[in-house]
Write a structure and sequence with these properties.
With 260 residues, this protein is an all-alpha fold. Among the domains are: 53-130, Serine Threonine Protein Phosphatase 5, Tetratricopeptide repeat (Alpha Horseshoe), CATH 1.25.40; 151-240, no CATH class. It has ten helices and no strands. Helix 2 packs parallel to helix 4 (90-108), helix 5 (115-128) packs antiparallel against helix 6 (132-149) and helix 6 packs antiparallel against helix 7. The protein is elongated, with a radius of gyration of 30 Å. The termini are far apart.
Length: 260
């Protein structure tokens, strides 16, 4: 099945602060002496040096500059997150983006346009981490956000729903997370909703209307093929074919006697 509509990485090593290194060295020294006293060996590796929460330090620094919930920190948090993402620190980026979303909600409520690019950033980080369930949940929230913000005749709603439906199409086409039918149902639902918007905002001969109609047709066909009704019909057809073949073989063995 093909549906017509169909997302950045170097690694950076963070050097611990001198005070942290001193504390860790002292701790390892104590552990090493204790282990030696018991006849044990202790291998000192980089894994034993705790990676302090760099994200927390970044957030604390921004908060101290602007205030804990000052909306002016949203932009620098986003900038820091994208910088972390560009160097492959996806988990760190994700924490920064989520903090930006938290501050945005405190300042503007649960539904505000400012959240849209922040959620885009969160989704990008979750995709990089291959957290498919979280990706799906954030797309679901984004869909809800778009519908709360924009009316059915607003092109921004269509643009937002197109972005969400593209996720489901891509996920089902490659069976990304083993939930192909769930993505298929959601894509079909979104295509139908987008068709309603198209009928309110576009001419009937607009190419987008034809594309949406074709995608709905494909989704409906695939959903039927995957349905219990189709499986039942296939079983019944196989049973009937077997009965017909059996009746035919029996008729071949019959002797027909006629009078000359």
């Amino acid at each position: 099945m093909t549906i017509l509509e169909h997302k950045k990485s170097a690694t950076r090593h963070l050097t611990p602060q001198p005070l942290v290194t001193l504390l860790v060295t002292l701790s390892l020294s104590i552990l090493g002496n204790s282990a030696a006293a018991q006849g044990l060996s202790l291998s000192v590796t980089d894994d034993l040096v705790p990676a302090l929460d760099t994200t927390a330090r970044m957030i604390t620094k921004v908060e101290s500059q602007y205030g804990a919930y000052d909306q002016r920190q949203i932009e620098p948090l986003g900038d820091l997150g994208r910088l972390s993402q560009s160097t492959g620190e996806y988990q760190q980026a994700l924490s920064l983006f989520k903090q930006a979303l938290h501050v945005s909600r405190i300042n503007h409520g649960l539904y505000h346009e400012e959240q849209i690019p922040i959620i885009d950033d969160i989704i990008a980080a979750e995709i990089a981490l291959r957290n498919w369930e979280s990706v799906n949940n954030y797309y679901a929230y984004q869909e809800h956000l778009y519908q709360r913000l924009y009316d059915m005749d607003d092109p921004r709603l269509e643009a937002g729903l197109k972005k969400v439906s593209a996720w489901h199409v891509n996920a089902l086409n490659v069976n990304l997370d083993g939930k192909r039918i769930d993505h298929l149902r959601k894509a079909n639902e979104l295509f139908k909703l987008r068709m309603q918007i198209a009928e309110n905002t576009l001419a009937l001969d607009d190419p987008k209307v034809a594309v949406l109609a074709q995608n709905i047709k494909i989704c409906e066909r695939e959903l039927f093929l995957a349905s219990d009704l189709n499986r039942e019909m296939m079983v019944r057809e196989q049973r009937d074919n077997h009965s017909r073949r059996r009746a035919y073989r029996q008729s071949e063995r019959r002797l027909i006697v006629t009078l000359d």
